[in-house]
Amino acid sequence: MVVREILPGIEAVGVIDWHRVAFDDLMDLPDGTTYNAYVVRGSEKTALIDTVEAEFDEEYVTNLIRAKVDAVDYIVANHAEQDHSGSLPLLLELFPMAKVVTTEKGKELLCSMVLIDEERILVVEDRDSISLGDKTLVFYPMPWVHWPETMVTWVPEDRILFSCDLFGAHLAASPLFSDNSCRLHEAAMRYYAIIMQPFRSKIREYIDAVESLSPAIIAPSHGPVHNNPSWILSLYRDWSSEEGKNLVVIPFVSMHASTRWMVERLVDALMQRGIEVRPYDLGTASPGTIAMDLIDATTIVIGSPTVHFGPHPKAAHIAFLANILKPKARYLGVIGSFGWGGKTVQSLGDMMPKLTAEMLEPVYIKGKPGEQELVAVINLADEIYKHHQDNHLV
Known about the structure:
seven-stranded mixed beta sheet, 24 strands
């Protein structure tokens, strides 16, 4: 990434990873990502905000040379995860007088994650500040965004917030600033779905805290810089609310078409009742895309045949993912078919203990669905409709 000025004395010095296709081997990245890092120069001292993945050490240091950063007093580590702290060991060698600034929990994690000498770390607490001369760094710990040690850094003179992963997006793009496009909207939503969704109650608190600062610019650790913060704040308000939409998500897998026929009948029945429905064949669907729909779904119905004694592994995978993402869904259903036995319904339910959703009566049949079984699917659609109606969604 070329070095670019955000404001006088503040430059973006991170890197673009145009070709990364997955994050944590969990989240697909259709548009790459960035590892944002920033330099903040005051009249007396200089600070770096975060570093980058270690494999981009050379590019990061080259950017610091291009930005003519020849002395660093502080390296702020808003988050210890290696995509932001990977270059920290090299930076501490290059700038032996620099101190790493982080939270107490951040200190513990940095010492174990990237083997930092704790003597180099300056621990800060809520609203502690460091003067750089004519600029000030103010620190706000925001644990569970999405790790326990996370904090954000505020420069009041410029009203710029370095928000770490909060408000980020996995999107490799040449523009420095957000263009509020559909492409960025999807990238930010995908990011929220996988990274932030399980922590939405904390996120709501932090949105209030951020709005109270009235930032002019929000500079996250991934994706474009927001010079119109109200756009991303509004999206986060919507996503993190507990209000679901009139939406049913049906991730399913089918071995001999029986489960597929049941899903197709359910889809038709829900559409006829004015309910938006999104079926996903787990043989081809992206977990990240399903996760985005879990943000708004009021009802989730998993379709799975029985393999040996339990659910198909692809259905088990999406159930496990839903459990760790803890979506706001209020109703949960299971449909599918078995050959000679097994405990698929019970197993799928047991895989999602963190969901607070009410379990609907399953439609789980032996063999190929006949007319009687398909009537049971229609009855499930009626039950979902009634629940959505009770929640004033239809």
